[in-house]
Design brief:
Strand content of chain C: under 5%
CATH superfamily of the domain at 72-317 and 334-392 in chain C: Cytochrome Bc1 Complex, Chain C
Number of strands of chain C: 10
Number of helices of chain C: 20
Oligomer: heterotrimer
Distance between the termini of chain C: 16 Å
Structural class of chain B: mainly alpha
Largest sheet of chain B: 2 strands, antiparallel
Strand order of the largest sheet of chain B: 1-2
CATH architecture of the domain at 133-222 in chain B: Orthogonal Bundle
Distance between the termini of chain B: 115 Å
Shape of chain C: globular
CATH class of the domain at 133-222 in chain B: Mainly Alpha
Largest sheet of chain C: 2 strands, antiparallel
CATH topology of the domain at 133-222 in chain B: Cytochrome Bc1 Complex, Chain D, domain 2
Number of strands of chain B: 2
CATH architecture of the domain at 72-317 and 334-392 in chain C: Up-down Bundle
Strand content of chain B: under 5%
Chains: A alpha+beta (about 375), B mainly alpha (about 270), C mainly alpha (about 575)
Shape of chain B: extended
Order of helices and strands of chain C: HHEHEEHHHHHHEHHHEEHHHHEEEEHHHH
Structural class of chain C: mainly alpha
CATH topology of the domain at 72-317 and 334-392 in chain C: Cytochrome Bc1 Complex, Chain C
Helix content of chain B: 40-55%
Radius of gyration of chain B: 29 Å
Number of helices of chain B: 12
CATH class of the domain at 72-317 and 334-392 in chain C: Mainly Alpha
Chain lengths: ~375, ~270, ~575
């Protein structure tokens, strides 16, 4: 079994100098001429180490003991199975186990422990059996090259050639080209049938969906979940309200969710002396009450982590941070565009309402989005 | 009359008279003595004076002698008794050192002193009063209302404090603290006053009833057992992934090593 | 004493076995066995008459690291079993209903049928929560095991010819496993996974030119619509498991065909495989390991809660939680999204969101892509077109090992970045600082770990060769009569020395001559020249293994020391004189 020491052909030469036929000898299939390195062995191969019997091979008592262990483990499995069935039917659903840090449903824990221990015991018993009682002589098998024998390849080539000849294709090549073309073109109907998975997102569709939200002039700002409308005097400096448009409550199901994915807002009240209000946004706010989209311009998580004193709004998903005291510009993180601001005013009854819809599409960017009217980054952190 | 005078030499007369006199004095005192002011009524001048003393020693170095604010601390004019009760009885104030985060630490003032401070600060300007028990009690709420409290929590609060109020990160080294073990009163006051970076959730927009629902939800979710087993801190997939690798792959590699180990030999 | 059996059929009989009388079991099955064999020829398959695929006594080598793939396989089987159970109760619909099941804290709330049915499984189906948790833990372990298994194969060079196909299949399985897991935890439509779905679709939107169309096409309209859960469900229970099953099948067939690789060692060559027979030993060990994997997963599911969707609440596009992370195997993408600077181009009326496209889309395919292409890159650099069946010890391929460690470094940095808010709160570090530090770290740390790993490998090589030349330190200090101190070394066994020096020593490939024997310009010389710096770098620092002459010389040198009186040590260490290295004996 050991290879002789000393160099052989493959080890010393660079590969470029040997031609492929020399590298891979294909004569003998059954093992010896494998296309592998024959490295120089400075230490000769001593052969597989001698087999030393285990304790259980020589000591009958030890072997019997192990056999008892294995059989016991197997016999415990029906016990765990019975316990499983009893736990399933008998442990009340609302009883709990309190054991150290574990405060969990007793039924669940019982079912899991019985099943788990039972299954594990089968595995442990099998391993003990294999390790201690099954014959553990190491045996040797010859490998074969990855390729098939030379005559098999030749035979395959022969069969292929004869078959191709008999098919008539060599003289009439159009047969095969047209056949393959015909089968291949079936991909077109198959793919086309998938078109109606969804609407085509052309410009009109995008205008209706990506670029439109429920907000338009006169829609009241209301508190999310409770739909209570808001007056400016309800808000204190430092207050945050998670808001939605009032007309959201007319929708249900998918339409509700679709609208809610674009329309939520955060309403914040800040001291006007502390914030920057650009001239063209003066009438977008009411006495320091500003309204921004709640949907992050990065990948669309809703944001409402607002720091009252720094005026920064942090998105918990990827830490994009927007300065609401500076038109929602990005001060940190991977978002590239400022948070869209919703212009608001007070209606005749004194409630806060939208002055118009959002001036830019809300939410994440998409390829056809015209982002020229969005703001970018604030100079603050950069 | 004859009843009393005929027994005036009874051996127990003196003792009884003493007891009677004490009783009378006690009754008269109880009738005329001022009732102990609850912190919700910061009008007793004694309390306010005490509060002002405490304030000037412990608070004025950062908040100014009249609570007007300095570069080290904001103005307390108009923060209200509720804010003081929250900050001081949770130990946040006085701050151990200036910094972005005011962490919870062992409180330095007892209830009486807190009440005094709150009374004093309330006089600086009108602000939210300490809520009374009915405002933050969770009695009488139905299951649907508590479930609604969960929805309100997840809409308004979980973005900072996490699904079940385990806390979350804020920029610049700050964090929104865990709400586990926080009293109902303090949760109410925090929503009402907006401490440090937390925004304000005024009673006009989020009325008491809804604040109670949120508090009831938090109580319920914190008392609830973890049905599936150990909850690993309630932090979600990060801890689950760590446990999966450490315990799952770790145990299984351990078993694999055992299975393929050579084991004892006879020689 | 028993000599190692040469071939499978020569394994010695155990003395207790009766000779060749069929026991009751074999007699019982002989009828049905003949019936089956008459129709399928299965006897020929079992005994190996179809060459090279299977026989009952096929040899499998034994090492714990060869069982990592089995962890993945058995986790997958557990996923299939528990998955079937879950499909009996799960309703893949986003239709809105009002909850009135037994979990009080969500009573009366509007939610999708998918979420409500998951709550039903968790609280109203007995054992349902257990099966759900087994399914989810098995999913985490499935991907973790695939990654660990692929790391083992990478570091030992098991991907080399003829196993490149299996490696590519493995990279594909990793990709599919990650996708399958993502779909699986998203279909319950809870708040945590819903945020993850939102993020993925935001990433789809960022694909230039076609992103918006893909987005609308797959959603069936706007986000979230009501078609998403049913479509993800179909992919999760039908299409992707079918592809995974087929690929796993091919993967296993190839392993059987190529036979398993083995570590270097005495008697192990490129032309043989030494180990235990498939039946009964490997069947028992591998089959038993299935039960162990299953048992560990069930025990974890019994006492460790995972994915408690009832605390997350139903998905609502206006709600989110602090500390929202995906399951661990998507964590590196989450980290990449968090670290990426906010590069976005606004060109005319178009928006090119590189800040999302690069980490989320390119990053998603880059991991399996980089893994899949590696064997072909290495082959180009080494020019090695021979088969390899003996594994490399990682130290003997220092550059490969260092590349692997630096790739793992990048992965770990991204995972930490993905959990940066939890790191920030637990270690009281600023969130922003972590992001800024890791933005630099992701470039600098891999370079550092590469250099350190390579040096460690080279150091280990030198240590190993030292052992061959000089033996191992005996720990006994000798003082000679003249006052000098020395430490005699104990010779190592020939088996160990052989294992250390068995590997092939690669040289950098020199480009061939510009013209061939007839003076005609050879083709491909430009490519060869382009390859030269890479191959020189790859093999340049390899430490040369000791030659036979050096070993002889060292043995003489030590023979002198040993004569001074540490024959005692040699005997105590149990090594026998005729097994000393370099004593000039072959076996």
């Amino acid at each position: 079994m050991s290879t002789s020491s000393g160099t052989s052909g493959v080890g010393g030469e660079t590969h470029e100098e040997m031609n492929p036929e020399q590298q891979i000898a294909r004569e003998d299939y059954a093992g010896h001429d494998m296309p592998v390195h024959e490295p120089a062995h400075p230490v000769p191969d001593p052969g597989v180490e001698e087999h030393i019997p285990r304790l259980t091979d020589v000591d009958q008592a030890a072997a019997d003991r192990v056999e008892r262990q294995v059989v016991t483990m197997f016999m415990l499995v029906p016990v765990t199975a019975v316990l499983f069935v009893l736990s399933y039917y008998l442990i009340p659903r609302d009883s709990f186990v309190d054991f150290g840090p574990l405060h969990a449903s007793a039924k669940h824990v019982a079912l899991g422990l019985t099943l788990g221990i039972g299954v594990l015991l089968i595995g442990l018993a099998t391993q003990q059996w294999a390790r201690q009682l099954m014959a553990n002589n190491e045996i040797i098998e010859e490998r074969h090259p990855g390729h098939s024998p030379a005559d098999a390849n030749e035979e395959a080539m022969n069969q292929l050639t004869v078959g191709i000849d008999e098919s008539g294709v060599p003289r009439r090549k159009m047969l095969i080209y047209s056949a393959l073309g015909a089968i291949g073109i079936l991909a077109a109907p198959a793919l086309v049938l998938l078109t109606d998975l969804g609407p085509v997102a052309g410009p009109n569709y995008r205008r209706r969906t990506f670029e439109t939200t429920l907000w338009k002039e006169g829609v009241r700002l209301v508190n999310d979940i409770t739909y209570t409308p808001i007056r400016p005097e309800d808000l204190e400096i430092g207050q945050l309200v998670n808001g939605v448009p009032e007309n959201l409550k007319d929708l249900t199901g998918a339409a509700f969710n679709d609208a809610k994915a674009k329309a939520p807002i955060v309403i914040v009240r800040m001291n006007p002396a502390d914030i920057k209000i650009p001239a063209d946004r003066k009438d977008w706010q009411v006495a320091g009450i500003l309204v921004y989209s709640k949907i992050c311009t990065h990948v669309g998580c809703p944001i409402s982590l607002w720091e009252q004193q720094t005026h920064h709004l942090l998105c918990p998903c990827h830490q994009s941070t927007f300065d609401l005291a500076d038109s929602g510009k990005v001060v940190f993180g991977p978002a590239a565009r400022a948070l869209p601001q919703l212009p608001i005013k007070i209606n005749d009854e004194g409630f806060l309402v939208a002055r118009s819809g959002f001036p830019v599409p809300v939410g994440p960017s998409y390829f056809e989005r015209d982002s020229r009217k969005d703001l970018g980054q604030s100079g603050e952190y950069r | 009359m004859r009843l009393l005078s005929s027994r005036r030499r009874h051996p127990a007369a003196k003792a009884l008279l003493l007891v009677a006199a004490l009783f009378v004095i006690g009754a008269v005192y109880a009738a005329v003595a001022p009732t102990e002011q609850s912190a919700a009524e910061p009008n007793t001048s004694q309390q306010v004076t005490k509060g002002k003393e405490l304030f000037s020693v412990n608070c004025s170095s950062c908040h100014g002698l009249n609570g007007e604010g300095t570069s080290q601390g904001p103005s307390l004019v108009g923060v209200g008794a509720a804010a003081v009760n929250f900050q001081v009885s949770t130990g946040r104030m006085p701050l151990a050192r200036p910094g972005a985060q005011a962490p919870v630490k062992p409180r330095e003032f007892n209830d009486e002193e807190v009440a005094a401070l709150a009374a004093y600060v309330a006089t600086l300007g009108p602000g939210p009063a300490i809520p009374n028990a009915s405002q933050y009690s969770t009695d009488g709420l139905t299951d649907e209302e508590i479930a609604r409290g969960g929805e309100l929590f997840r809409t308004n609060c979980s973005a900072c404090h996490n699904f079940t109020g385990r806390g979350g990160a804020l920029p610049g080294g700050k964090h929104a603290p865990s709400l586990v073990g926080v009293s109902n009163l303090h949760i109410y006051e925090a929503m009402l006053t907006g401490p440090q970076q937390m925004p304000v959730f005024s009673d006009q927009v989020l009325p008491s009833q809804q604040k109670r629902q949120i508090i009831a939800y938090l109580d319920s979710i914190h008392q609830e057992p973890n049905h599936g087993g150990l909850d690993l801190g309630g932090l979600g997939p990060v801890s689950e992934g760590i446990v999966g690798w450490a315990i799952g792959i770790g145990c299984l590699i351990g078993f694999a090593i055992w299975i393929t180990a050579r084991g004892a030999r006879a020689r | 004493m028993a000599k190692p059996a040469k071939t499978a059929t020569e394994a010695p009989q155990r003395p207790e076995q009766p000779d060749r009388q069929l026991g009751p079991v074999m007699k019982f099955f002989s009828g049905p066995a003949k019936w089956a064999d008459d129709r399928t020829g299965i006897g020929g398959i079992m005994s190996g008459r179809i060459p090279n695929i299977f026989n009952l006594r096929k040899v499998f080598p034994d090492h714990w690291s060869f069982m990592l793939g089995e962890i993945a396989l058995y986790s997958f089987i557990v996923l299939l079993l528990t998955g079937v159970f879950l499909t009996l109760w799960f309703k893949p619909s986003m239709g809105e209903i009002e909850y009135n099941g037994s979990y009080q804290l969500l009573r009366g709330l509007p939610m999708s049928e998918a979420y409500a049915s998951t709550l039903n499984i968790s609280f109203d189906v007995r054992g349902g929560l257990l099966i759900r948790q087994i399914h989810h833990w098995a999913a985490l372990l499935f991907v973790a095991a695939m990654l660990t298994h692929s790391m083992r194969i990478f570091f030992t060079g098991g991907f080399r010819k003829p196993r490149e196909i299996n490696w590519v299949i493995g990279a594909t399985l990793l990709f599919l496993g990650m996708t399958e897991g993502f779909l699986g935890y998203s279909i319950p439509d809870d708040l945590l996974s819903g945020v993850g779905v939102r993020i993925i679709f935001g990433a789809v939107l960022s694909i230039p030119l076609v992103g918006t169309y893909l987005f609308t096409w797959f959603l069936g309209g706007e986000y979230p619509g009501d078609l998403l859960v049913p479509r993800m469900y179909m992919l999760h229970i039908l299409l992707i498991p079918a592809v995974i099953l087929a690929l796993v099948g091919v993967h296993l067939i190839l392993i059987f065909y190529h036979k398993h690789t083995q570590f270097p060692g005495p008697g192990r060559t490129e032309k043989n495989v030494v180990g235990y027979p498939f039946f009964p030993v490997y069947t028992a060990k591998a089959g038993g390991f299935f039960f162990i994997v299953f048992g560990v997963i069930v025990l974890m599911a019994a006492v460790i809660q995972i994915n408690p969707i009832w605390t997350y609440g139903p998905y609502n596009p206006a709600e989110v939680s602090a500390g929202s992370q995906p399951d661990w195997y998507i964590g590196y993408l989450e980290g990449a999204l968090r670290l990426m600077p906010n590069w976005e181009w606004h060109i005319g009326a178009t928006t090119w969101s590189w800040n999302i496209f690069i980490p989320a889309i390119l990053g998603f395919v880059a991991l399996p892509g980089a893994i899949g292409i590696y064997p072909f890159l290495e082959k180009w650099v080494t020019g090695d077109d021979l088969e390899h069946h003996v594994l490399d010890r990682p130290r003997n391929a220092p550059n490969r090992t260092a590349i692997g460690v630096s790739a793992i470094t990048v992965y770990v940095v991204l995972m930490i970045a993905g959990a940066n808010d939890i790191v920030a709160t637990h270690f009281h570090i600023s969130l922003n600082s972590i992001t800024l530090v890791l933005r630099w770290g992701i470039f600098i740390l891999p370079i550092i770990t590469f250099m350190i790993t390579k040096r460690i490998c080279i150091g280990l090589q030198r240590t190993a060769y030292d052992r061959v030349l000089h033996g191992s330190e005996s720990g006994v200090i000798h003082r000679s009569p003249s006052g000098g101190y020395s430490e005699p070394h104990t010779p190592i066994t020939q088996g160990e020395a052989f294992a250390i020096t068995q590997h092939h020593e690669y040289q950098p490939i020199t480009p061939g001559p510009v013209t061939d024997a007839n003076g005609v310009a050879r083709k491909g010389t430009t490519k060869e020249r382009a390859r030269r710096p890479f191959t020189r770098w790859y093999f340049g620092h390899n430490v040369a293994k000791p030659t036979a002459a050096e070993i002889e010389e060292a043995a003489h040198h030590h023979g002198g020391h040993e004569a001074e009186g540490n024959g005692q040590e040699a005997i105590e260490s149990g090594e026998r004189a005729d097994e000393q290295v370099g004593a000039g004996h072959s076996d």
